[in-house]
Amino acid sequence: MIQTPSLNSLFVYGSLRSGFRSDAYTYISNFFDLIGIGKVRGRLYDMGKYPAAKPGIDEHYITGELYHIRNASDFSWAIGQLDVYEGVCVEEDEMQLYYRDITEVQIGIGKVPAWIYWFNGSVENRKLIESGDLMEYYKPS
Q: What is the pTM of this model?
């Protein structure tokens, strides 16, 4: 299990975003409060059934939502459940789909550290989501 410092914020860019209204979003809304829309340095790819975020240092950004845990004492348990959902915790014979790391979220005029799930596999030959915003990408044209 990943060691968790006293950081209780989470940045999400896929099915955990409020606009998707997935079961996973319903779960996090029980434990986390939405702070607002933010962005992180990186690139977002279309993997078919899910998005893949890769960290970056250039001027490409991923748009998502910043959340903060409602009760700090619930964080370890709640993030542990999300680790299972995101494929961080896997069996010996399974590939770890994502890994959780700390990133810097730009929100409003400030920057906030938060946990993010980065894709752990290859994005070779996958479509880059140019806007970096999955909600915008899925809007009908």
A: 0.89
